[in-house]
Amino acid sequence: MDLVPALEEPLKKVLGPPTAKVMAEHLGLHTVGDLLHHYPRRYEERGQLTHLADLPMDEHVTVVAMVADARLLSYASAKAPRGKGQRLEVTITDGSGRVQLVFFGSGVHKPHKDLLPGTRAMFAGKVSVFNRRIQLMHPAYELLRADSDETVETWAGALIPLYPATAKLESWKIGKAIQTVLPSAQEAVDPLPPALREGRGLVTLPEALLKIHRPHTKADIADARARLKWDEAFVLQVALARRRHADAQLPAVPRRPSPDGLLTAFDDRLPFTLTEGQRKVSREIFADLATAHPMHRLLQGEVGSGKTMVALRAMLAVVDAGGQAAMLAPTEVLAQQHHRSIVEMMGELAEGGMLGGAERATKVVLLTGSMGAAGRRQALLDLVTGEAGIVIGTHALIEDKVQFHDLGLVVVDEQHRFGVEQRDALRGKGKQPPHLLVMTATPIPRTVAMTVFGDLETSVLDQLPAGRSPIASHVVPAADKPHFLARAWERVREEVQNGHQAYVVCPRIGDEEEDPKKARKSAEDEAEKRPPLAVLDVADHLSKGPLHGLRVEVLHGRMHPDDKDAVMCRFAAGDTHVLVATTVIEVGVNVPNATAMVIMDADRFGVSQLHQLRGRVGRGSAAGLCLLVTEMPEASAARQRLNAVASTLDGFELSRLDLEQRREGDVLGQAQSGARTSLRVLAVIEDEEVIAEAREEAVAVVAADPELTGLPGLRTALDALLDEEREQYLDKG
Predict the structure, then answer these.
(1) Alpha-carbon distance 35 to 131, whole Å?
(2) Which residues on adjacent β-strands are paired with residue 581?
(3) Distance from C-alpha of 462 to C-alpha of 300, rounded to nearest angstrom
């Protein structure tokens, strides 16, 4: 079915090419429908003004205020040497605070005429500080006049929508454009099934669009938002429910472990017992593997909760049943590490076909991009003959040359680092679709899991295995209290003296070429006047200074894979005392003897990333210590974020905080990226109930009518949501 022509109309035709070009480039809006779904961020009541006292630094803001005074000053400068330069300073107020507006040069004449004391206007510009005073430089403004056809009362009470805007397009210009296209809202086709809409007392879509852009009362806004939230949640959940429904129709080879096979032999040689959580999750996975449809399961587990053990048992079950299992890791360091630890855990069971191998053994091979030709040829041969039951590799596994004898299970480690295309290419290597297990150590709140990974069933490992130690975390304010940093290095020495090891993590490597394009620093960098600390500089400083006499080595992503592996081996063997690294150690690196971690410029890492990094210590029987070093002032948001990380080890709690701070990112597209969100009114954290209810409704609708033949409006909305790129994204999920 075609989309409604009126809403498909290109903005170029309706608003003219110049405005349409800015909307397309800066806001991603191309059609009338796109513009109608560009909702106000908030509303101003003309009589009740924004708090100027709360203006955020370095952001584009729109404020409604009254001019308190205006002064025209002259000054001398290079361009106007004889004191002929003119500067207009206008002070505006809203009762909560005062802000200065500054206009220079020839730009002073119009505002000097317009902005007389007592005038009310909307001002839009970037907030900056000059001489310790908050100011807006050359703001755009729109005078608010009580027009003849409006009484002062209605004027003062009217709700002014303020839209997400850009420097190139002020909120009120967007508002005017929306007023132009608002009549088309009447032709919007309603995606919600009538029974659902009426049953929940929601307004129609045309009414919701009208009320969100032109509300008369706050109740109008609430009605509109409640309805539009349902649209977003429901259409998204229908897309995911259709995926699950389609996947359930696919055939797969059921894989049941034999009663006295490889898995039993492996369990018998384990030196410890599995946690109750590991056993429960394994039961869920084995039940999925035994069905004739491909498993699609997400395994979430706190750092160190034993996900690899669960995944390995699933792989062994598949090998038992005559299939092969592939584990995909995001980096070579991690692939090598997984290979080492799996071979170690399996012992002679990993020596299939070799002298001394157990009779039920299989072969575990490693396949990475940097392997030598001979090793690679042998690995490929082992895969195609079925000699190797388990292969661990990086995206080198996906190349066309790689053929499997019978691929039964794909395990993907650290899902958010893997493109969907890569998972898809690997899944295409099976004669029938293989089962899929996705592991992540980034805890995901339930609603996000339902939204981002809604096509996967979720298992959660929330117990730490016995013998894991608690990690104490502290913020080290290096600028306010330099002696705290000196004490941090003393603590590292103490750990080494007690026979342990330490990590020091930095945001940068330090041998980068300065890219002239990147030389323009962000406002935060400007404020700090220095680039982030680098591995090479910090390692040099430490070995000559505070950690003189200890064996300090570096590890970063641009080293040759063999060198990286050698460094990791020396660190794992205890030959290196302190490893100074970038975030390459963030996932999967497992050295139980490392007990301390110092994270430099910790404010430059995200909450989840800090939590991941911290999980690298305390992996043995000795307690872990994580020190978050920052120069940010105590009152800053960055410091509050670090305090939150230091105060809890609960990854789910931290992931909520992280999400609230970053917003949701484009939940379908660049999941995790913080880009413009495809969810406009739905907040994944706050609207948990709506999402859960929408999921139930969606499952029922899809079960009754998988092709949605009876719901043309819903099909239309799905087509709009799943434009090409996202459709592919979901298809490959």
Answers:
(1) 40
(2) 505, 555
(3) 8
pLDDT attached to residue 1: 34
Task: Measure the CA–CA gap between 227 and 201, rounded to whole angstroms.
Answer: 9
Using CA atoms, how far residue 495 sits from 242, 458, 540, in Å, is 54, 39, 20
Beta strands across the sheet bearing 501-505: 471-477, 624-630, 594-599, 501-505, 578-581, 552-555
> Residue type at 647?
S
Helix count (H) and strand count (E) of the chain? 27, 21
Can you tell me the distance from the alpha carbon of 427 to that of 408, in angstroms, rounded to the nearest whole number?
9
Cα 250 to Cα 60: distance, rounded to the nearest angstrom: 50
Cα separation, 113 vs 594, in Å, equals 69
Q: What phi and psi values does residue 639 have, to the nearest 5 degrees?
A: -65, -40
Enter the tokens of residue 264: 């039993």
CA angle 187, 192, 197 (to 5 degrees): 105
Run of H or E including 315:
helix 307-320
Q: What residues contact 24, with CB distance under 8 A and at least 6 apart?
A: 11, 30
Per-residue exposure over 655-692, b if at least 16 CB sit within 10 Å of its own CB, e if not? bbbbbeeeebbbbbeebbeeeebbbbbbbbbebeebbe
Q: Would you say 535 and 554 are in contact if contact means Cβ atoms under 8 Å apart?
A: yes
Using alpha carbons, select from 336, 255, 242 the residue that is nearest to residue 293: 255
CB-based contacts of 213, cutoff 8 Å, min separation 6: 36, 39, 40, 161, 178, 179, 182, 185
How far apart are the C-alpha atoms of 452 and 684, rounded to whole Å? 10
- For 414-470, list the strands marked E by DSSP: 435-440, 457-461
Pick from 20, 83, 80, 58: which is nearest to 136 by CA? 58
pLDDT < 70 stretches in the chain:
1-5, 45-51, 60, 77-83, 146-158, 303-304, 353-359, 414-424, 426, 442-443, 445-455, 464-468, 511-530, 586-589, 659-685, 722-733
Structure tokens at 154: 């209605």
Residue linked to tokens 């505070």: 546
How many whole angstroms separate alpha carbon 551 and alpha carbon 556?
17
Structure token digits, residue 696: 């139930």
Query: Position 69: which residue type?
Result: D
Neighbours of 18 (CB within 10 A): 9
3-state secondary structure of 314: helix
Burial code (b: 16+ CB inside 10 Å, e: under 16) for 189-212 equals: bbbbbeebbeeeebbebbbbbbbb
C-alpha angle 662-453-317 in degrees, rounded to nearest 5: 135
Yes or no: say if 402 and 367 are a contact pair by the CB < 8 Å rule: yes
Contact 124, 165 (CB under 8 A): yes
Cβ atoms of 332 and 466 closer than 8 Å: no
Residue 84 in tokens: 């002929």
> What is the per-residue DSSP string for 37-97?
T---SEEEETTB---GGGPPTT-EEEEEEEEEEEEEEEE--SSSTTTTEEEEEEEEE-SS-
Helix (H, G, I), strand (E, B) or coil at 264: helix
Asked if 88 and 116 touch (Cβ cutoff 8 Å), the reply is: no
What pLDDT does residue 522 have? 42
> Which are the contacts of 365, defined by CB distance < 8 A and separation ≥ 6?
378, 379, 382, 383, 388, 390, 391, 392
286: helix, strand or coil = helix
CA atoms within 13 A on the CB side of 254: 7
Residues in contact with 397: Cβ distance below 8 Å, sequence separation at least 6, in sequence order: 326, 328, 367, 391, 426
Q: What is the 8-class DSSP label of residue 545?
A: T
Structure tokens at 522: 């962000």
From residue 672, alpha-carbon distances to 301, 444, 448, 656, 681 in Å are: 18, 11, 10, 13, 18
